Amino acid sequence: MSTATGTATAVRDGVGASTARPDGRLKVKGDFAYSSDLRAEGMVWGATLRSPHPSARIVRLDTTAALRLPGVLAVLTHEDVPGQATYGMKVSDQPVLAADHVRYQGEPVALVAADHPETARRALALIDIAYEERSALTDPEDAVRGLGPLVHEARVDGRHGNVVRHVRIRHGDVAAARAEADVIVSGTYEVGMQDQAFLGPESGLAIPAEDGGVDVYVSTQWLHDDQHQMCAALGLPPEKVRLTLSGVGGAFGGREDVSVQIHAAMLALRTGRPVKMSYNREESFYGHVHRHPARMWFEHGATREGRLVFVRARLLFDGGAYTSTSQVVIANGSYFAAGAYDVPHAEIDGYSVFTNNPPCGAMRGFGAVQSCYGVESNLDKLARELGMEPVELRVRNAMTTGTVLPTGQAVDGPAPAGELLERLRARPLPPVGEGPFGNPGGLNNTSHGEGIRRGVGYAIGVKAIGFSGGVDDRSVARVRLALNGGEPVAEVHTAAECGQGIVTVQTQIVRTELGVERVVVLPADTQVGDAGSSSASRITWMSGGAVQGACKALRERITALGERPLAELLAECGPLEAEYEYAHRRTFPVDDERGQGDAHIAFAFAAHRAVVDVDTELGLVKVVELATAQDVGKAMNPLAVQGQIEGGSAQGLGLAVMEELRVEGGRVLNPSFTDYLIPTIADMPHVPIDLLELPHPDAPYGLNGVGEPPTLSSTPAIANALRAATGLELAKVPVRPEDITDMEGR
């Protein structure tokens, strides 16, 4: 029987157990309600008219014919935006609906509400709109050099030009170190535009309320930030814009930016009817941000013994037409451009720029994926020049506790980079011919073993956990205890569940702290204080800390009421409730001149060893094994941690050999899952996982973020293995068959 005092030390399915997800059975059976499943009485359908041009002036926009179509309830343009005309996560520079200009293919121009989705689509076709195409800026090099047209003639941040942000990091004396280096290598590396490719397209339901406000049910990663942007655009106070999380079919950063939220609410307020909006797959590709494509130049210098002396790097990220999170993505990429290594001298310049390409923003790994690929690729080149095993070069220079980063911050938590690499090196290699679906070409039986070469590649990545650079990050949670059927039941109310499993961890924390086995997780909404974004590998740390804090506050109240069975106490006193706001230790911005500052709260490390078989005649690749070792601090739910690592590794594999949103002249060429390829079960190799648990001293239960680190090192490990197998430079990911069969690249 639960008692009213103390922390449960041996509760079933508490912290550290591989507890089943509370939403798992529903999802497996197909009974889980996602946002695209929402319905309401009297509901009508919303649809969006989007620009076909990457850059154009709107010269005519007439909605008369669309409004006359039977079944159409409203057609809205920029003139109908009730509040602020623009929105944005960091900078409010993106029009709710385009007014005079469109700046990327797919930009929203008008909205329709109709009694049937087909009627809405027909109405969109009846909108009379004419464009005058303008010269599009599509090369990020032109953008950083001040060439070509301005994407924003008048910027809301008061600056001029197409550079969103220049991050400048200067640490030590690179000029002197360069003169002392025995071996210097450099290389230019590129990363293509990757899509989050979540399976549930953007969707939501907006219901007008009697108080003149609106209730919005939507799949998102940050309800309160959505609310902030919506209030400005709708001209309504927060108490009249209420958001509730609906089922999220994947996110990976692509749901941090607003999509249907403002549009659906505008239509609902205009029509007085519930409005549902749900993108199809093609519109989803246009309707959310993507991973920044990058061009990066790296130069490393080392002694003959393989000690790194300096690193120089230039990173150029294409942010597309609007700011989104480009300012902080390029910062994150720049902060970790030296990789998971002790490098005493560093000179790093990171640029994010505007172009008329699709907008880019948050995606799992948040800038560190791109820089990790660059630094790990150049380290393999350095190892070849030194005549040293690539993994040995990495181990000799691996970061440790106390290592000073290029930003001047000393790593004060666990930093087991060398141990992770050693664990992978010690693993036996898989036998030739082992693995599912046989040779490269897999199920198609394309290759029969001719011309197949094996390669092995290593990589390690590091990134910050949570928000950096002085952000006062906080998370609020509420826990309530009450009787149900005579038994104590706890309700927990906090962060957005995007598939990562925070609903499971919440139940485990409550069981551990309160000794109550029955726990109900309520849908996240804006009626409780801000839990922050389900991103940046922060949510278990931050919301876990908030839930733990609320539980401790409840325990203190219960203790004050006297020691007795909890059911007896609740029967006498009634339900008990506590709300708690958790905050991490303070961080600081980096300075603009040298990029120095204690910007991060903690760091996470992951390493991969990839084994590949390559048919060099056909250019086909089979990733045979993708072994990983990662420090997770504390495995709150070991099975869920394994799932996160496997999923992150799969996305890294996709970026390495297949995933790229192809853009030419600002136009997307492959906005469908027919042509944008993601890994399937036939592509995934065996993924042996080695979990290292080094408790972080500042975190609840000693945990660390686990979701993003696997995406850092998986891509370069595979690329390095492909280089080892083929002897080719392979300076861009994804690596395509023609890259391997192009013998001129040898």
What overall form do the CA principal axes indicate?
globular
Count of DSSP E strands? 28
What is the strand content?
Answer: 15-25%
The computed structural class is: alpha+beta
Distance between the termini: 71 Å
Total count of helical runs of at least 4 residues: 18
What is the radius of gyration?
26 Å
Low-confidence stretches: 1-9
| Major beta sheet summary | 7 strands, mixed
Spatial arrangement of strands, main beta sheet: 3-7-1-14-11-12-13
Mean pLDDT score: 95
Helix percentage: 25-40%
Give the oligomer, counting copies of the same chain as homo and different chains as hetero.
single chain
Care to describe what's here?
This protein is of the alpha+beta class and about 750 residues long. Helix content is about 25%, strand content about 25%. It contains 18 helices and 28 strands. Strands 3-7-1-14-11-12-13 form a seven-stranded mixed beta sheet, sandwiched between helices. A six-stranded mixed beta sheet has the order 9-17-16-15-10-28, sandwiched between helices. A four-stranded mixed beta sheet has the order 18-23-24-27, with helices on both faces. Helix 6 (about 225-235) crosses helix 7 and helix 13 (about 500-515) packs parallel to helix 14. It is globular.
